[in-house]
Each structure stands twice: as C-alpha cells, then as structure tokens.
Amino acid sequence: xxxxxxxxxxxxxxxxxxxxxxxxxxxxxxxxxxxxxxxxxxxxxxxxxxxxxxxxxxxxxxxxxxxxxxxxxxxxxxxxxxxxxxxxxxxxxxxxxxxxxxxxxxxxxxxxxxxxxxxxxxxxxxxxxxxxxxxxxxxxxxxxxxxxxxxxxxxxxxxxxxxxxxxxxxxxxxxxxxxxxxxxxxxxxxxxxxxxxxxxxxxxxxxxxxxxxxxxxxxxxxxxxxxxxxxxxxxxxxxxxxxxxxxxxxxxxxxxxxxxxxxxxxxxxxxxxxxxxxxxxxxxxxxxxxxxxxxxxxxxxxxxxxxxxxxxxxxxxxxxxxxxxxxxxxxxxxxxxxxxxxxxxxxxxxxxxxxxxxxxxxxxxxxxxxxxxxxxxxxxxxxxxxxxxxxxxxxxxxxxxxxxxxxxxxxxxxxxxxxxxxxxxxxxxxxx
Length: 432
Known about the structure:
By secondary structure, this protein is mainly α. 78% of the residues lie in helices and 0% in strands. The chain has helices spanning 20-24, 26-57, 60-87, 90-112, 120-147, 153-181, 184-202, 219-231, 233-249, 255-261, 268-284, 295-315, 319-347, 353-382, 384-405, 407-411, 418-431. The longest helix is centred in the N-terminal third of the chain and has 32 residues, at 26-57. The radius of gyration is 21 Å and the shape is globular.
C-alpha cells in the first residue's frame, strides 16, 4: 500500500469486500461479469460430466480417469500458454479460447442427445477443454494486474474469488436438480449459452498487447520463467503447498459415490456446492485480508486446515456433518487462494507475468487433476470414505513439512519484500 493510500475502513465495514477495483475500472467489471457467467455454466458441466460417466460405466476409477486425460494437455499447454500470454494480445487469447470451450459444449450436448451416448467423447472433450483452459488462464491471470491499480490488487483478488464462488455455489446446486429432473442435455446446453454471453463481454474490453520486454514464445522463454520461479522460494512455496493440498485432499470425483454410500443421492448437488459455498462465505467478509501482510503464513495455515476438514468429511457418517465440513474446507481453500493471488500479483514483473501464471496454473490445476486419479484408485482398493479421510490427513502432514523446508514462505512480509517494492515502483513509473 502506498503512503498516500487511504486508510482501510474499520468496524463491520472493514469485513465487507472492497469494491474499489469495481468502481475504478470498467474493464475489470466487464471481465468480472464474463467470468461469473462462464463459470456458472462450467460448473454445470463440472457436475454433469462425472455423473454421466458414473451412469455409463458405474466405475469410480473411470470417473477418476478424467484427471488422467486432462493431465498431459495441462502440462503442455499450461507452460506454453504462459509464454503465449506474455507474447500475444491477452484479450484475443481469452476470446478465442472461450469460443473454443463453447464448441466443446456443443459436442457434449450432441453426444448426450444420442439414444446411446458414447463414453469416449467425454474423455476427448475433457482433454481438449483442459488444453483450452491451460492457454486461457495465464492470459486471464496476467491481465488483472494491468486493468487494476496496484493498491487495489488485494481487493481484486477477493472480488475475483467471490465471482468464482457465486458460480461455484449456484452452478452445482442447480446442476444436481437439472441433471436429475431435466437431463444432461439441459446442463450442457446452458453451459453453451454462458460461453456465448461471455465472449460478447470480453470482446468489449481494451486490447492488451505484449509488453515490449516480453520474450517470444519458445522453450527458452519458458525456461526463463521457470528459473525466476525457482529463485523465488516464497513463490515456490505457494506452488508446492497448493499442489500438495489438491493432490492429496481433492475428493470431488468421489462425491457421487459418497452420496450413494450415505444413502443420500439427493445430496449430491449440495455436496458439490458445499466447497464453493464455504469459499463464498469467506469472500463475503474478505475485507480483513487487506490488513494481513504475512501472506505466506496464511497460505500454509489455510491449506493445513483444508486437509483436516476434508479428513473430517470422510469420517462422518451423517450427511449434514459431511456437508458442514466440506463447507469449512471450501472456506479454508478460499483463504489460501486469496493470499496466493495477492503474492503473485504484487511481486511478479509484468514481462514475466504470463509465464509465471502458467506455472501457477500447473500448481492449482495439476493437483486436482492427478488427485482425481489418486482418489479413484484409493477408493477402488480401500473404499470411498477411506480415500477421502486419508487424503486429508496426508495433506495436513505434507503442508507442515513444506513449511519447515521453505522458511522464506513463512517469513514473507509484503511491507518489506523487495520484489513487491520493485513491482510497485514499476507500476508507478508506467503511469507517469
């Protein structure tokens, strides 16, 4: 925060989300609306696709295999997508990848309408969707710091988290009803419509060409970004903690089977909605995050609590307690995500932002993707609930070990960190 920045509000108002980025940037508002709408539709498919696979195969391993087919596109296009984001116009990348996602929704819709839907198109669409998201997310993540003032970045991180959680709560909850009573085709059709609306909004934001210092897309450019990340141990810690938490304690692929074991099929939509509901509750009172400066400690604490909450959800036999602990886990994950985003956006220079966003994408996407395979495999041998609670316990232990091994993550302070000061000065010089 700059010396001439206004004092943060106090009292109850200090707990509410800070709307300063919303008021100050028209492009922020448009991109925020576009993300809200497309995320809502994506969560419909997020629920519908594993449900369809479960209905067609009856196998937890088959559902978990979604993660396996998403992994290679994620690894390849996540890193290269980061290099593209630094070298190309970010808005164009977002528009074209959003349109491509809409075409994949068409494929899912057509397959669902067949008298006998095939299994293989579900895996093909999952792989192609992973590739498109891997190209889009670095462009999107590196665009926010360009359209939001530096001192507004913590508030923007909270508002973006709020946007995601609104779709995350409403989308799965509605998807459970739509899939059960209207059919899979309606879920896929609604997703297609949201992508179309999102494209219309994104094309109206200002162009965001490459920085003149940015390297052209190449393996050398990707390696440059990787070396920078490796040299920043506090950044490396945020990646490692999130990767461990999501790999070991992401139970979403098992929720259809967990609902069956609890004899509560009606609760499936609520289970999918519980994690984002917890995140939504945290984002509604996220004003307090602006007064925290030791972001690394918050990342570690929240990730460990996420694991413990998931473990509790796996142990409970009462469906309402399962829903409660999934909600608590979602809140913890949101806290971790907010502070990771603040660290990334306030300390990474613009010319490297896309490539580092590609690495970030791997850290928060590879974990859940491979974690689905882990969860499905464990469930096949030791049971669904054992897979869930053991993953949570392992997560808490792994996060604690990483905190010991990466002390710079625990000592990071935004007020004194030289990288934060350099980025702040860079932004100030660009505005002169």
